[in-house]
Amino acid sequence: MATFWTNQTIEAWNEALNKGYLVGNPDYIWEEFKEPYHWMMEQMKKRLHYYNGEYPIWVWTEKPDLRRSGHFNRGTYAVRLQVEMPSEHVLLSDFDAWHMVLNDGFLPLTWEEDELYDKGQSKRKKEES
Question: Where are the domains of the chain?
Answer without folding.
Answer: 2-92, 94-129
